[in-house]
């Protein structure tokens, strides 16, 4: 199948066209309070116009256990990460603290039954890394200088198990809920075994999670309140980005503090370059200055800011994403609304070297241009849908064929997004 490159020349659509001067390509909906994670595939988005792979609740789990291989010796921490849903239940507006994870100093299995909450409120909260999936709250402090000390436990070279040595407590002070956790071991990088109970030893549960039961997943999730293992993720070969809530580092004066945020993280194996200083119609692969990074929060949350009434979008953040399908996509955010939708609108397409690549690689044409009555898409491929957008991003005309009636439109510049059997394409035209 021939690959189509969405025209970069359409980025000349005009400064007033959209927030980023680029036509919107797709959107994600996280729901009220950003209560869902949205897993997204750029390949699927280019092919179908809707890249959402899976939408799943993000408020019904507390711990995430890696089911990825440990990759000894290159990346031993990959398979021992345990992440925590630290934003769950936290609200600055209501003053609730949500769930916090702490490690009890000097405590292990030998004194598991003799624990209480004394002094717990002053123990620093443990947080996941927001730069890599494999550095988690439970492995906080891990370094490659001591590669087999994973903080919650250590690798035993005789048994080849990672054996637990520390007691953690996951608690929600607002709900007066305290769950103590001991990671017993990972058996030969295949089986998680852990124990969770109330701080007073009631409601004790021994849980096992077999890694091989979840092929092509990054994590499997556990709800400590309802004692349920949750298989939430889609196949990790099928998604590039996830819209989610997490604890990000927010700049507050001269310091950065952890704060619940809604943002975009990328999958393992995906790289992103954030180009600053140019709008999306000013930068391409040929002139970008950003370097691709494995940092999973390169897109993150700082592309938007709340002005007290609505969200402003940074118009000089352009992302070049090398996706799971090995193609590079250029992406910019167009708008964000919170409330009952938590909707992000964005523009993206397979990235090109310059604004002339469409003429070289394409062959698709919208004519006549300028037009007065009808426009027709000229292409060798099967045209399935044509949408016409005005300068404000409103869909003003559509057709399930190659010809669209635009006679009722006012004079001006318009954008077409064309869906063919080979993928999506964009082109502008002038209405006389």
What report would you give on this structure?
- With 432 residues, the protein is an all-beta fold.
- It folds into three domains: 9-58 and 237-350, no CATH class; 63-230, no CATH class; 363-431, Immunoglobulin-like.
- The protein has two helices and 31 strands.
- It has helices spanning 42-48, 357-361; strands spanning 26-29, 36-40, 52-57, 63-66, 82-84, 90-91, 96-97, 99-103, 153-155, 162-164, 167-172, 177-187, 191-198, 205-210, 219-223, 228-230, 241-252, 255-266, 271-276, 304-306, 311-313, 317-322, 328-337, 343-350, 365-367, 374-378, 383-389, 395-399, 403-405, 412-420, 423-431.
- The strands form eight sheets. Strands 8, 9, 10, 11, 12, 13 and 14 form a seven-stranded antiparallel beta sheet that branches.
- The longest helix is centred in the first third of the chain and has 7 residues, at 42-48.
- The protein is elongated and about 80 Å long.
- The two termini are 36 Å apart.
- Mean pLDDT is 88; it is low at 1-20 and 354-362.
What secondary-structure arrangement, pairings included, does this model have?
Blueprint: E1 26-29, E2 36-40, H1 42-48, E3 52-57, E4 63-66, E5 82-84, E6 90-91, E7 96-97, E8 99-103, E9 153-155, E10 162-164, E11 167-172, E12 177-187, E13 191-198, E14 205-210, E15 219-223, E16 228-230, E17 241-252, E18 255-266, E19 271-276, E20 304-306, E21 311-313, E22 317-322, E23 328-337, E24 343-350, H2 357-361, E25 365-367, E26 374-378, E27 383-389, E28 395-399, E29 403-405, E30 412-420, E31 423-431
Antiparallel strand pairs: 1-24, 2-3, 2-17, 4-5, 4-15, 6-7, 8-11, 9-10, 10-12, 11-12, 12-13, 13-14, 15-16, 17-18, 19-22, 20-21, 22-23, 23-24, 25-26, 26-29, 27-28, 27-30, 30-31
